[in-house]
Design a protein that fits this description.
With about 280 residues, the protein is mainly beta. About 15% of the residues lie in helices and about 35% in strands. It has helices spanning about 210-230, 240-250, 255-265; strands at about 5-15, 20-25, 35, 50-55, 65, 75-85, 90-95, 100-105, 115-125, 130, 150-160, 165-170, 170-175, 190-200, 205, 235, 270, 275-280. It is elongated and about 85 Å long.
């Protein structure tokens, strides 16, 4: 049986001027598909010879074979670049002459030409190969990682209710919870994170911030940089709204208070009634 979207070994069952016809059974021409002449390997074109090919559909929706390997096969997940955006959806470069359609209904965010996104290859209701950005439920829960391990992955979806869904190593299921999203991230972004929880089902919770004592130094430097940029005065204090702190500095209120306390002890800042000031010697 010839399988759409897969690399498979087929046999030459018929030869014509413009190529050879292949089938999964030797000598059976019914249901065979074309391998164009330019694709036929030299010295491997006799009846009965086997050829490893990938099967997809041409511009007329006919099943056709190629010896070229695409960047993704059926059921796999891979990062593909957007070659074009049209009225019917986006087209992804997957290494073959005909680009791969990513329908609008399969996009988790508006995609841009030239940018790369994580997608899965599937067969739609019309028996055509398409890409989808909807990866939830198709990633593995059997990761090799442990608590506090550093990991890297790709954000494939962002939920206002839950946070950012991440494919660690582009294959393992993970989530950066909404409360942990102190950075401006988008679908398609690559992130470096730390495992903060492993659920009973194997899914990972991640944090893109370091442990508190390590993060404090980075947060303190971020506050100093903001003070320098704003002339030595920052309109934030320990009573500030957490959303104001997050918007201005990209950190939690607890992280802000820890960093401010650290800078106070080092004598680098002083507190006003509704702001903090950079001490003159540090300007």
């Amino acid at each position: 049986m010839i399988e759409l979207g897969k690399v498979q070994t087929l046999y030459i069952v018929k030869k014509v001027e413009f190529g050879v016809y292949l089938n999964s059974e030797k000598g059976v021409t019914e249901g065979s598909i074309l391998l164009p002449i330019k694709q036929v390997p030299r010295g491997n074109s006799r009846l009965g010879d086997s050829i490893e090919v990938f099967v997809y559909r041409d511009s007329k929706d006919r099943m056709i074979a190629t010896v070229n390997r695409p960047y993704i096969t059926i059921g796999e997940i891979a990062s593909l670049k957007v070659a074009d955006v049209t009225k019917i959806g986006a087209f992804m470069d997957w290494g073959l002459e005909k680009d791969l359609l990513l329908p609008y209904k399969e996009q988790t965010t508006k995609v841009e030409k030239g940018k790369t996104y994580l997608v899965r290859l599937y067969i739609d209701k019309s028996d055509r190969l398409c890409a989808t950005m909807k990866l939830y439920g198709h990633l593995s829960n059997q990761s090799p990682y442990h608590l506090n391990d550093k990991v890297s992955g790709t954000i494939y979806e962002i939920s206002n209710n839950f946070g950012a869904f991440v494919a660690v190593d582009d294959k393992y299921d993970a989530l950066i919870k909404k409360q942990q999203l102190f950075a401006d991230v988008k679908v398609g972004d690559q992130v470096e994170a730390r495992v903060v929880r492993i659920h009973d089902n194997g899914k990972l919770d991640l944090s893109i911030r370091k442990k508190a004592y390590k993060q404090m130094d980075d947060d303190a430097q971020m506050i100093l940089d903001a003070l320098m940029e704003q002339g030595g005065k920052l309109a934030l204090h320990d009573k500030s709204n957490p959303e104001d702190i997050k918007r201005e500095l990209g950190m939690s209120k607890n992280g802000f208070k820890r960093a401010v306390g650290h800078l106070l002890k080092e004598g680098k800042i002083e507190l006003g009634q509704e702001e903090i000031h950079l001490i003159e010697s540090d300007r």
